[in-house]
Amino acid sequence: MLNETKEILVIGASGKTGRRLVRRLRGAGERVRAASRSGEVRFDWTQPTTWLRAVAGASAVYLIAPADPAAANDFVSQAVQSGVGRFVALSGRGIDKIDQDFSPSMVGAEQAVRDSGVEWTIIRANNFNQNFDEDLWHQPLIDGRLALPMGATPEPFVDAQDIADVAAALLTENGHHGQVYDLSGPHALTFAEAVTTIAKAAGRSVQYVELTPEQYRTELLAEGYSADDATALNAMFAGMRAGYLAQPTDAVRRILGRDPIDFDTYVARAATAGAWQ
Ligand SMILES: NC(=O)c1ccc[n+]([C@@H]2O[C@H](COP(=O)([O-])OP(=O)(O)OC[C@H]3O[C@@H](n4cnc5c(N)ncnc54)[C@H](OP(=O)(O)O)[C@@H]3O)[C@@H](O)[C@H]2O)c1
User: Fold this and answer.
1) Domain enclosing residue 68, as ranges
2) How many degrees, rounded to 5, is the angle at CA 18 between CA 223 and CA 63?
């Protein structure tokens, strides 16, 4: 049982999942430290001097992976010494099957919490809905062309709000120690279908273009992505094309007792908020 008078440290608190998690936890009356480089609590993975102050007094931590896997290990050790008794780490679905090029950082963060000697739970999420309005695929949609090497394999995109709600439950409820949860949305759809849905709701003309992995790499490099990022993204799409992430899971329903948010609901809300205007 965690000391309920203590605080929860949310790393990446200004990001897609962290922002929603902070709101959810505070809404439930939890005491939260919202941490990032620019956040209420200053925390920088590249500056270990910021770690201890951020974590001192916290009993539980929401961990999103640092670029450097060694940093996750060092931070987790410090956090445990400082009294943290529970970690919830965000990772990617299929990480155990996809080529290691995909994300050494998430592999490292998973290992760090598994080795922590205290309670840990890992969330392995499908691609987020919010990648279409807050991240990687937003600008291409605005530009009218989303081009990916995905083929016809469907993806059960998961909503960042569902990840936040699940993380809040795992951080505050008992019974999840040592669990790895694959989190998806309720239905799988192709990227072509996702683009059609968004284009219709946004009232824009957007084209989905199928690329070969080589063409995708060339486009990423031309857009300014690093060679490592291009390799990682191609590894991710290879795993997705292979179908490792394609089946919807029931984890959101099992943990929260409600259905996950479906893609149409996400699109309607984001379009109303002006995401693609
Ligand atoms: N997007 C997906 O579909 C997907 C699916 C599965 C897993 N994931 C994993 O989810 C994680 C990202 O989570 P997210 O999408 O919620 O976050 P996000 O939207 O990518 O935001 C990143 C957060 O990290 C903070 N940050 C960036 N650099 C930092 C540094 N050097 N030190 C401390 N904080 C730093 C940022 O805030 P500041 O700029 O203020 O520091 C921000 O709060 C990644 O590990 C990703 O691989 C993503």
Assistant:
1) 7-128+159-185+248-261
2) 95
